[in-house]
Amino acid sequence: MAKKIMIICGSPRENGNTLTICNWVSSGATEAGAAVELIRADQISLKERGCVACMGCQSSDKFACVIKDDISSVTARFPEQEVLVFASPVYFMGFSAQIKCIIDRMYSLFKITRDGKGITHPLQYTRFALIATAAGSYDHGLNLLEDNMKAISSFFGKEYSTLLVPHAPVKVGSIITDTELLEKSLAFGRELAS
Ligand SMILES: Cc1cc2nc3c(=O)[nH]c(=O)nc-3n(C[C@H](O)[C@H](O)[C@H](O)COP(=O)(O)O)c2cc1C
Question: How far apart are CA 183 and CA 188, in angstroms?
């Protein structure tokens, strides 16, 4: 059966760097036989601007967010994915707000064990990946997104892989003719599918 890969793109820009790379990665993975779903975080409708810290998810026995909107429908399908790819431009040294809204709602996908020493979660078959673009060099925020991804993956006991793209200017279309990056992205997609 085809490997299921969900790519969530956190850039609000049509034809922006991040979405361009997501499309390239998706092509590489699809050509390698994966079933890829690309979701645009900026187009997901949400009831709240982010997690409201109601802790409803932690007091329920379900791995589900109690806010019922399109984000909870998307996070509910995370356990079906073999690879979950978070894609974001660096915004002021962090993730874009669009993707952060989704990452925070993943709080509903674990429970702290009774002894308080560990967690249980439904992501047994899922591994993580990060695609991140930035205008600056690695130290201008890509490092922090990578650290964040590393910490989230480690929290869930997961492996992760990254495609980090520095020197991607804000001007729309700035990377579109970069054939080396295209090849790198296609290869990253193939690797995710393998
Ligand atoms: C609000 C805003 C904040 C940004 N902050 C950073 C930053 O902290 N570090 C950096 O290297 N680039 C920063 N950038 C540049 C973008 O991360 C970069 O150009 C990215 O590739 C844009 O992605 P997009 O085309 O998908 O929107 C920022 C851009 C915007 C619009």
Answer: 9
Homologous superfamily assigned to 4-193: Flavodoxin domain (3.40.50.360)
Q: Is the pLDDT of residue 56 over 90?
A: yes
Q: 171 CA to middle of ligand 1, Å?
A: 10
Domain boundaries, the chain: 4-193
pLDDT category of residue 1 using cuts at 50, 70 and 90: confident
**CA distance linking residue 69 with residue 92, whole number of Å:** 28
108 within ligand 1 shell (Cβ under 6 A): no
- How many Å lie between the centroid of ligand 1 and the Cα of residue 48? 25
**What pLDDT, on the 0 to 100 scale, is given for residue 8?**
98
Report d(CA 31, CA 46) in Å as an integer. Answer: 33
Q: Is the pTM of this model over 0.90?
A: yes
> For residue 148, what pLDDT is reported?
97
Q: Using CA atoms in the order 163, 166, 169, 174, what is the torsion angle rounded to 10 degrees?
A: -50
Whether ligand 1 lies within 6 angstroms of the CB of 133 is answered as yes
* 133 contacts 171 by C-beta, under 8 angstroms: no
